[in-house]
Amino acid sequence: MLPEEILRPLIENELSDAGIILADEVNNEIKIWDAEVSCRGGYHWVMGDVNSHTFANPPCTPTFVPNGTPGPNIPGLASMHAIEVLERFLPLKFWAEFSQETNAYRERCQQNPINADPDEQEVEIGLNGQPYAKAAWKCDYDLPWVPLSLGQTLRWFGMNVGMAIRPRNNTAAHWDATKYGCLTPDDYSKYMSRNRFNLITKYMYLNHAEAHHFDGNGKLLNPYHKVQPLIDLCKQTWYDNWTIDEFNSVDEGKVQYSGTMCPVRSFDPDKPIKHGIKIICANDSKTGYCWGVEPYTGAGHQIAEQKDDAFYDSLTIGERLVLYFASKSPSYTSFITDRWYTTPRLCEYMFDKFSCFLTGTMMANKVGMPWNFLLSWDQLNSDRGYYTWCWERQRNLWAIVWKDRNVIPIISNRYGVDPELIERGGGGKYKTAKLKPTNVQYGRYTFKTGKMVRPYNKYMGGTDMWDKLRMALFYSLEAVTHCHKWWQKLFWGLIDGALVNAYICWRSVDPTRRTHVKFMLAVHQALVNNSFDETGTWGAVSMREPQTAAKRKTPSPATPPHPIVMLPKVTSPGAVKHELVVFAKPKY
């Protein structure tokens, strides 16, 4: 405990200059623990460190009561086919409107290519003076165009799914007879020609031009206007088809796009995807399901539900985003965030307005924290496991500054600052090479940490889990499509998100047997074999899971693999073509 002549000015002057000077004049061996100080924003903190005799513990945490059974909110899910589950996220009405808008956009381009899309002035500038109709990717106005129907749209979407399952260097390679994709070359030609496929991809459109609103200066009020119908659909279906569980994480995902004609492109030098379109996601921490999404527009981002509320005007963008997701969740839901969102004010408002908990890392420049006393040179040079803590008794906020490999500030309105042991290291010399020899004698070692560190490490990875499934190789439509327009890249990124959410719901029935590749193949086969143009149904495709045979004592004989016929290239006019039969390995 500090002497009274030093502690009293710190309490009375509320971290005034005199109090800081007195603290600097104290001998280095004396530390300002078990003291109470005040900070900006009306926060009064009681401080201590890992060696304190008593710790501030939170009151009894209320019991979380969900609005139903946590997980998929889809009746009859156990007996549904994969395409029926996907239809809950991408209904047929959406694809019918997609077909109508694409036909209307093609007709406008045919009448007047320059004025087909008035808000694409940047595209015309990027052509470097070329006539708009003679650009390399706008030179097919003379090709015949048949109005797009719902069945063709679904077949086009299914062929894109097949290209994601078995990607190639370019789209034309899927029609090449010398290469083998998800479908054979004959099947690709049977369902749709390559020119027709390219035309649909080129003229795909979602929102009619009359819905594009400008301000008085000619600037778009909503940069996402071309893909806004899909954004609204994702917000509604992703939330309606899931019952929110207790632990959720809020983080950002990114759709990769490196073009210069994107008004919402962001640059993050420390991320694997440096250039792209950022989308803020709220995900279930256990399964990775994304039940909340908000595309990010940059500085001045506005959320439609908060536009007319003066309370949100003084908050940061990160605070408004987390509060937006908390407003859609039941009481006593726990959110885990990273350092871009978390502030002491956000922790306070989360429980006062929506009765939700928040735990997250924090930047060391946020207002309201006693950083002068929580951070010190001694802490930077201390061993792993040392931490300082502070407690706001009126607002029930707890925070620690913990020394791991780096110094990490964490704040929570649910977990206290009691010390507990955490285990690190092990698994070989390469995993322990970065550890100091003074800290570890063998492969693994334990050290102290605050009580809020373990739940943060356990529940923070929900968004990363969902983003990893969305961008997985062989399953991502965004990764295999080559788009000149940035909004088309975002379109495929959101379609990937809908596919991943549908797969998470479909997999919850039997996680061991229902794999990702089975889901994608089932969706692909149902889409390319649809009969909506003729009968208005999905066609001759099995809409139920195949029944598994009963277990036998003697194994049944293995079915022969399907042959793949490949013809080698003819090098000379007189050479004879020899048919080469290669047997493919079963996929699962």
Q: How many domains, as an integer?
A: 3
Radius of gyration: 29 Å
Poorly predicted ranges (pLDDT <50, ≥5 residues)?
Answer: 1-32, 124-139, 427-435, 542-588
Number of helices: 18
Structural class: alpha+beta
The largest pleated sheet is described as: 11 strands, mixed
**Overall pLDDT level:** 76
Topology, number of strands: 17
- Strand residue percentage: 15-25%
What is the terminal separation in angstroms?
A: 67 Å
Helix content: 25-40%
Bulk shape:
elongated
Task: Give a verbal description of the structure.
The chain is an alpha+beta fold and 588 residues long. The protein has three domains: 4-45, no CATH class; 78-213 and 503-528, no CATH class; 225-466. It has helices at residues 4-12, 17-24, 82-89, 92-111, 121-126, 150-165, 185-191, 194-202, 228-240, 317-326, 344-354, 371-374, 377-380, 453-459, 462-470, 477-480, 486-507, 516-528, and strands at residues 36-39, 43-49, 71-72, 242-243, 247-256, 265-267, 275-284, 290-295, 334-337, 357-361, 387-392, 397-403, 407-412, 419-425, 444-450, 563-566, 580-583. Strands 1, 2, 5, 6, 7, 8, 9, 10, 11, 12 and 13 form an eleven-stranded mixed β-sheet that branches. The protein has a two-stranded antiparallel sheet with strand order 3-4. The protein has a two-stranded antiparallel sheet with strand order 14-15. A hairpin with a 3-residue loop joins β12 and β13. α1 runs antiparallel to α2 (17-24), α9 (228-240) runs parallel beside α17 and α10 runs parallel beside α11. The model is unreliable at 1-32, 124-139, 427-435 and 542-588 (pLDDT under 50).
